[in-house]
């Protein structure tokens, strides 16, 4: 019988920081999601899809790339985009280059929704995070989360994190 090495337990300070991160992220994501649902009738995940599509040439992106860029499973993105397509915010079609993949394209109605939702989202991010901490702390948070993301996407170069 093999024995596993003893875990490297978190010390008290690390545990406090870890729990603060988990609680803060949970509350933040819930608040941002609630704000968008209340003001615009969309979820934070739907908002992120609109944003990612709007940033691409032709407001179009392969579904697989979209899932990777969001860090979500392909099935989750497919279900979300399917709902958004029914609402008229995106369209899906076979890729024009080879017809083997599916692309999602932002519709004019989706762009209009994004233009309505963006100020709501930015106001929430600003009030809950950016304006709540010192600029140096916010910059440090960005560096920390980039390091975490870089570590977690090892072996997944297709993911677009920045």
Number of helices: 6
Helix/strand/pairing class, anyone? mainly alpha
Please state how the strands of the largest beta sheet are arranged side by side.
1-3-2
Q: Overall 3D geometry?
A: globular
> Would you count the extended β strands for me?
3
Q: What is Rg? A: 19 Å
- Percent strand equals 5-15%
Quaternary state, please? Answer: single chain
Question: What is the residue-averaged pLDDT?
Answer: 92
Element pattern in H and E: HHEHHEEHH
Give the termini separation: 45 Å
Biggest sheet features: 3 strands, antiparallel
Helix content range: 55-70%
Low-confidence stretches: none
Protein described:
There is one protein chain. The protein is 62% helix and 8% strand. It contains 6 helices and 3 strands. It has helices at 12-40, 44-54, 63-70, 74-86, 108-128, 135-152, and strands spanning 60-62, 90-94, 102-106. A 3-stranded antiparallel beta sheet has the order 1-3-2. Strand 2 and strand 3 (102-106) form a beta hairpin. The termini are far apart. The relative contact order is 0.12.
Characteristic terms for this protein:
mainly alpha
Short account of what is shown:
Helices cover 62% and strands 8% of the residues. The protein is mainly alpha-helical.
Question: Secondary-structure blueprint of this entry?
Answer:
Layout: H1 12-40, H2 44-54, E1 60-62, H3 63-70, H4 74-86, E2 90-94, E3 102-106, H5 108-128, H6 135-152
Antiparallel strand pairs: 1-3, 2-3
Helix pairs in contact: 1-5, 2-5, 3-4
């Amino acid at each position: 019988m093999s024995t596993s090495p003893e875990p490297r337990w978190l010390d008290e300070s690390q545990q406090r920081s870890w729990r603060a991160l988990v609680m803060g992220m949970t509350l933040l994501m819930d608040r941002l999601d609630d704000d968008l649902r209340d003001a615009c009738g969309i979820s934070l995940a739907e908002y992120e899809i609109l944003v990612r599509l709007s940033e691409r040439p032709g407001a179009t992106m392969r579904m697989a790339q979209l899932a990777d860029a969001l860090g979500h499973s392909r099935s989750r993105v497919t279900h979300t985009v399917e709902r958004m397509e029914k609402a008229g915010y995106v369209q899906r079609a076979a890729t024009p280059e080879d017809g083997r993949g599916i692309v999602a394209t932002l519709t004019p109605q989706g762009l209009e929704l994004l233009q309505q939702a963006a100020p709501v989202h930015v106001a929430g991010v600003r009030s809950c995070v950016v304006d709540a901490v010192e600029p140096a702390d916010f910059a440090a948070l960005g560096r920390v989360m980039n390091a975490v993301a870089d570590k977690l996407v090892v072996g997944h170069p297709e993911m677009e994190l920045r």
